[in-house]
Amino acid sequence: MHGIVYDQVNDEIIVPIHLAGAVVVFRGDAHGEEAPIRKIQGPRTRILRPETVAVDDVHNEIFVGEDGGKDVLVFPRDADGDVAPLRTIRGPKTQLDEIRSVAVDPIRNLVVVSSRSARWPTGVFIFNRTDDGDVVPRAVIAGPHTGISRIRQVAVDPQQGKIFVAAKNNRDSYQFDSAAPSPWNPDQPGFIGVWDIMDSGDIPPKGLIKGPASGLVWPAGVALNFKDREIYTIDSVRNGMFTYFMPELFRK
Amino acid sequence: MRHFNGRSSNLAGIAAAVLLSATGFKLTIPPESSNATSILQPDNGEEGDICLVMPVLASLQAALPPIESPAGGDVVPVRSVEDPYPSLHSIAVDTEHDQVVMTDSNRGGILFYDRTSGNKSSLTTDPSWRIRGPATGMMFVAGVALDPTRREVFTVDNDIGDRMMVFPYDVDGNVRPKRVLSVPHGAWGIALNQQRDEIAISIEHPNSIVVYGRAATRLDAPKRVIHGPHAGLEDPHGIVFDVPANEILVANHGNWAPLDREEAGEGENSIPGRFDSPSITSYPGLAEGDVRPMRTLQGTQTQLNWPMGMSLDSIHDEIAVANYGDNSILIFHRTDNGNVAPVRLLRGNRTGILGPMGVAFDTKNDELWVANYRDHSAVVFSRTASGNASPKRTIRDAPPGSPAVGFGNPGAIAYDTKREELLVPN
């Protein structure tokens, strides 16, 4: 499992099960070997290998991002069983490939998608919330000045209109003919970057957590606590979770 | 219209204006005293197209020094949760050289212990050697296998790295592997067949078993692949070669989903993902392609629940399964088939078994080893121990009571605003 979201309005935890082609919903205080209260799975769902989920508790929808399926599927929030998606964002115009994360801005009616690709840009793709089919993104934040080479989770602060990005920036492959063949290079760390949701193009982040003091090597996840103005990250090579107090990145 | 983020010096602005002149765009740079940002727009004064602006911005920013530092920087965390100790994953025993080897998936390493290590005290036991560090290439290491003849240890990276690494015995620290082999994504278990000079690796994501020559390296292709809708492979984990019977045995979690739209098919007849019961499936040693298992151990009587590592005792015709889901070790007859209860099991508060990931028979010394992922320990039993038995001895890699955080290549995080809790999936 590489995705999770908490639905604070309905007190539910939503999890994509990549290896079983399903999205399962648990009670907010679920623990132990507890059965889900709902499960989205079946041929009508078009779910293939779900990597990530997001919930829009304003419009009552669940967004499912798939790396294998290279698409974003939108379901009613209370969907259960073999349910067809309401909308699908998929196709070459979208430039979406291995989707890593999805987030929703219900105020501006935007969907923010992180995607990794060898063919298309690797970065942040912004769509209209109600987009359906093979659509061109409204904006793409990608390129060398963004600093993003490998991307994972994105989180949105809809009040401020900001996107928080976990840029993992790891290498996977062993460089057989290199003098330093190991892909584990602690001198090339990832970071948490912050962009405006109306940003577009190859632009550097407006906010950043990066460097040896931060402890981050390959940050894969990012979550926000608006009340306490904290940013939470999870690091996949350190197997660690880090909390940053960053009032300058939140609305007072 | 898109704004160029940041203020420009006059010199840089002039350079940028020259750079842009050939593109049909102009850069409007406000005076230094102004708080306004520079504005990039077409020369005709009409609003620019986003698709055209993007490459121009790239060229522009390459030409300009960074002016405005982003907020934040190298910020020290106010809190952190990390496990400084190894998380014991898989285990293998070499009775010829009296070595026990375990993988550490938390810190990406391999730990070597003397076979007689451990005691009944609460003291920690230092490994004889440990291989770990950036040069090793090991990240989220999983399965382990030993070649006592050549004194080599094999391990695979799971869900990141996509490779098998081979190290010699008796090396210590941040060393390069002796051999590296690229393998498909999601490798978990590894088994060695010394008679056939082959290695078999279980691959979670494509529900496959790949078999290579023992000395395979770099980008060598597998000799055989078991994969297909009839193969019964569903999120395979533990794997063993049964050399005397010429079979391969695999522990499956029971998750299955098509790898891509081609495998899923289209329309009403498309094949969706599914949750099945966990199973142990057996194949002929030379099986290839979409072959049906010879035997499938599956059902409520088996008590299988997240079966992880396995071990084979060819002398007594038994297989041991690390049953992570209910903190037990299940022992079956080697040829059990169908919905069959284990011949014995180890489970209970006295066993010290907590989140067992690895299990290994030592038939020479009549012992059974268990590596605990959810505790910083490995426990050793008599081979025939059953029920709520106490271990003969325990290897601890952390002081008693040290929590095992349990992060394993985490890829996301969520904040529960109601309970003020953080949720992390592995």
Nutshell version of this structure?
The complex is a heterodimer of chains A (252) and B (426). Chain A has 252 residues and is mainly beta. Chain A contains no helices and 19 strands.
Q: Kindly name the structural category of chain A.
A: mainly beta
Write down the CATH class of the largest domain in chain A: Mainly Beta
- Most extensive contact: A-B, 95 and 84 residues
* CATH T-level topology of the largest domain in chain A: Neuraminidase
Largest beta-sheet details of chain A: 4 strands, antiparallel
Task: Please state roughly what percent of the residues of chain B sit in beta strands, choosing from under 5%, 5-15%, 15-25%, 25-35%, 35-45% or over 45%.
Answer: 35-45%
Tell me the overall shape of chain B: globular
- State the CATH class of the largest domain in chain B: Mainly Beta
Q: How many domains of chain A?
A: 2
Unreliable residue runs of chain B: 1-67
Principal-axis shape of chain A equals globular
Helical residue percent band of chain A? under 10%
How many beta strands in the DSSP annotation of chain A?
19
How much helix is in the residues of chain B?
Answer: under 10%
Q: If you consult CATH, what is the topology of the largest domain in chain B?
A: Methylamine Dehydrogenase, Chain H
**Unreliable sequence segments of chain A:** none
Please state how the strands of the largest beta sheet of chain A are arranged side by side.
1-2-3-4
Largest sheet of chain B: 4 strands, antiparallel
What is the succession of H and E elements of chain A? Answer: EEEEEEEEEEEEEEEEEEE
Task: Work out the number of β strands of chain B.
Answer: 33
